[in-house]
Amino acid sequence: MASNLFSFFPQSEGYLPKWQLFISVVALFNTVQNFATLKFTRRVYSKKPQEVTPLQARTFAVWTLLSSVVRFYAAYHIHEKSVYDITLISYLIAFGHIVSELFIFGTGGTQFPSLSPLIVSSTSLAWMITQYDFYVKA
Fold first, then answer.
1. CA 124, CA 19: separation in Å to the nearest integer?
2. Structure pTM?
């Protein structure tokens, strides 16, 4: 049974495709959470949780769903340059967003829930940049 489950995992070499799948699934759960409650989103924007509104949470949910789809597609098409590039750009946008919330708008805190998007986006960016030539062969 476990071998059947593993057959659904990305078959490309390395851990980056599996990471993309994992992050995609996490983002899917985050999407549902953003539609269902403000509780966890307010923890990400912990310095100004009152600024998290139902509209903002739903907008964030849609962005997160789009990111989930892009990253899911990348998990299975990691060698396609356009897919790799758009996935890398999605992490760059996420990184820019969370950094601006931390340092420009002052809504993000310095505790774990606030820093988790920063950790995921920066780790993914660094990983994708350093492994570009391995996965995208000209």
1. 9
2. 0.91
| Beta carbons of 78 and 19 less than 8 angstroms apart | no
Count the alpha carbons within 13 Å of 131 in the hemisphere toward its beta carbon. Answer: 17
The residue count for the chain: 138
83-99 residue pLDDT tens: 999 999 999 999 999 99
- d(Cα 20, Cα 50) in Å, to the nearest integer? 32
Q: Token digits for 50?
A: 């009152």
CA neighbor of 65 nearest in space, from 105, 29, 101? 29
Distance separating alpha carbons of residues 77 and 135, to the nearest angstrom: 10
Q: How many DSSP H helices and E strands does the chain contain?
A: 7, 0
The vertex-6 CA angle with 10 and 18, nearest 5°, equals: 35
